[in-house]
Design a protein that fits this description.
Elements: H1 2-22, H2 27-36, H3 39-52, E1 58-60, E2 66-68, H4 76-80, E3 88-90, H5 93-100, E4 104-105
Parallel strand pairs: 2-4
Antiparallel strand pairs: 1-2, 1-3
Amino acid sequence: MILYFIAIYLLATFILTWMGIDSKSEGVRIFLISLLLTPLAGIFLVMKERRKATPVHYYYCHQCDYIFPVKMSHCPMCQENGKKVKLNKYVSPHQITDQIGHLNLT
């Protein structure tokens, strides 16, 4: 019986750690708090950290296929060549790579 309790406790800890990593929180901290204190404390921490996490936006140039993690209005690579290309905003670089097939990060 105690073995089942330990297995459920560890499973809850790992699920909370995965949720913390997915919500861009500190996964190691959530894991340690859930393991040492209780998974209920881990749930509280995941919910608290979820509000504080801010998503990173990526800006993609369709001309030169570069992705910039910094907010810019025009592509600096293309501006060096004398072109003024407006960058498209994306939440995830995976959305862009699905469309173009390869990835060039700067």
